[in-house]
Design brief:
alpha/beta; six-stranded mixed beta sheet; four-stranded parallel beta sheet; 10 strands; globular; disordered N terminus
């Protein structure tokens, strides 16, 4: 079954968009009845004191009697918002509100946006450590590289709950699912592909690592200065670690050198790509031009050189959209009571997305629609099962 979002309506105007955001996109709801004095006595004083006493006596009771256990904190410092860059926490808040809305609509999870007026990793970590009783998981969003790598690592170490930087891992999960779909359409193994990733930021690093974990053997990554090679000037930190495990043929140079004979191009840098450069790729090439809102190369131009084209946009086929992953990943982790989101859980999420798509694969349908109601339940079940297997093995 393929669910195709409606594309016949005209694009929304600026006035329409701003009007839709008046007052923000979120509000809280009330689950307890509050119709009379008796309801008030149950939901608030004096009845609520009994609940507080129960939690004081047994801290684990908070998972039963509060929403914190299944509340996702959507956290940003506003330093890498969409394609807008470092625009600050206040300007980032509408995006975080939107993320919270997606958690509810697609994963059935409550979430709360938190934007922090600091870029200091230690301050962010300590802030979230102190807020930990108020939430059950952390979705990091729009934090610039390379700080995002340290921040995620530090939070995973400091917090006893699931933490994931969606710009890294949500993108990686959906890319892997889409590439599996593309391979199935063409009858090709993932391990045999020559893959080029343009962009060595948050998403580029995570995509390279998940593809290698899934069995890819020839992944070449570029930053703004060219192909990552061990010892190259400017290749430090996460880039240096990535250079050691990628580029097995030790290709050097720029994008044309990387694309010569390549099967897959993955654009995650925002840098414009002249379409004729794709002519150097292998036959039946795949182009994933994922920068938003402007892909590295226009899909219509890419289609002149590639058999399969994907973008991050909703107005073209094969949208690589993180909403296919993150609601189900967090739902599955919370359902399983997991304290970590592991690599095995991410791989399981990608396989689940691919499994949904496999019912109706085609060159222009390598991933499910974000509106396919099967996706989030499939992902959450796969992630929970992976978490349970990990728990059983310990």
């Amino acid at each position: 079954m393929t669910i195709v979002p409606e594309r016949t309506r005209p694009a929304p105007t600026t006035e329409e968009i701003l009007a839709a955001h008046l007052g923000g996109k979120l509000s809280t709801g009330v689950r307890a009845p509050l119709a009379d004095a008796r309801d008030l006595a149950v939901a608030y004083t004096p009845g609520v004191a009994q609940v507080s006493r129960a939690i004081a006596a047994d801290g684990s009771a908070a998972a039963r009697y509060t929403w914190a256990h299944r509340l996702v904190a959507v956290v940003s410092d506003g330093t890498a918002v969409l394609g807008l860059g470092d625009i600050g926490p206040r300007a980032a808040l509408p995006v975080m509100e939107g993320k919270s809305a997606l958690f509810k609509a697609f994963g059935g999870l409550d979430s709360i946006p938190i934007v922090l007026d600091t870029t200091d990793v230690e301050e962010i970590v300590q802030t979230l450590v102190r807020l930990r009783p108020s939430f059950g998981a952390v979705n990091l969003e729009d934090v610039a590289a390379p700080r995002c790598f340290e921040l995620e690592r530090r939070l995973i170490e400091a917090l006893d709950c699931p933490v994931m930087h969606d710009d890294q891992h949500g993108t990686a999960i959906v890319l892997l699912a889409a590439l599996r779909g593309a391979c199935a359409v063409q009858g090709r193994p993932l391990a045999g592909l020559r893959i080029v990733i343009s962009g060595a930021g948050a998403a580029g690093v995570a995509c390279a690592r998940i593809l290698l974990a899934a069995g890819a053997t020839d992944v070449v990554v570029l930053d703004s200065r060219g192909i990552l090679v061990p010892g190259r000037a400017g290749v430090l930190g996460e880039k240096a670690a990535l250079a050691e495990i990628t580029n097995p043929r030790r290709v050097a140079g720029g994008l044309p050198d990387a694309l010569a004979g390549a099967d897959v191009f993955v654009g995650l840098s925002g840098a414009a790509l002249p379409a004729p450069v794709l002519a150097g790729m292998a036959p039946e090439a795949m182009v994933f031009a994922l920068s938003n809102p402007d892909p590295e190369v226009h899909p219509d131009q890419a289609a002149e050189y590639a058999a399969i084209v994907a973008t991050g946009r909703s107005d073209f086929p094969n949208q690589i959209n993180n909403v296919l992953a993150f609601p189900g990943v967090f739902r599955g982790a919370l359902d399983a009571g997991a304290h970590r989101i592991t690599e095995a859980m991410k791989l399981a999420a990608a396989e689940a997305i691919f499994a949904v798509a496999s019912d109706d694969l085609a060159a222009d349908r390598i991933v499910p629609s974000p509106f396919d109601p099967r996706v989030a339940p499939a992902v959450s079940a796969a992630v929970a099962a992976a978490a349970d297997r990990m728990a059983d093995a310990q």
